Amino acid sequence: MSKENALRAMREARYAEAQKRAGAAPARRVAPVAPPAERSAPARSTSATARTATPAATTPDVEASEELCGHRNISGRTCTREKGHAAKSHRYS
Predict the structure, then answer these.
(1) What span, in angstroms and rounded, lies between the C-alpha atoms of 13 and 7?
(2) Which portions of the chain have biased composition (kind: Low complexity) (predicted)?
(3) Res. 6: pLDDT tops 70
(4) So what's the pLDDT on residue 59?
(5) Could you tell me if 50 and 62 are in contact, meaning their C-beta atoms sit under 8 angstroms apart?
(6) Is the pLDDT of residue 71 over 50?
(7) 27: which strand partners?
(8) Are 71 and 78 in contact (CB under 8 A)?
């Protein structure tokens, strides 16, 4: 067998092993998310802690709602621009 054929066989064996490992890996469980709490009437409180805790609890997480492009370059870095960006280049981090 030539050197090229040996390298090709080794590469194919590594690829087959990686595919077998990926298929055998258990699916990752998604962290449970609590359903949004229903709010009836706002609670009347004069304490400072109640006033400061309420706005922070109701503010949505902006970063979690943004979806990223997700394009990967050769070294495995992912694009940090928004999904469907109009820019021709990707911004990796």
Answers:
(1) 10
(2) 21-60
(3) yes
(4) 45
(5) no
(6) yes
(7) none
(8) yes
Evaluate the CA torsion angle 19, 25, 26, 32 in order and state its sign: negative
For residue 25, the number of C-alpha atoms closer than 13 Å in the C-beta half-sphere is 9
Lookup: tokens for 55: 């706005």
| The pLDDT value given to residue 57 | 47
DSSP state of 42: P
Distances (CA, A) of 64 to 26, 34, 46, 60, 67: 25, 15, 32, 9, 8
Considering just the CA atoms, what is the radius of gyration of the chain in Å?
25
Q: For 36-68, what is each residue's pLDDT tens digit?
A: 777 766 666 555 554 555 454 444 444 545 788
- Residue corresponding to tokens 């694009």: 79
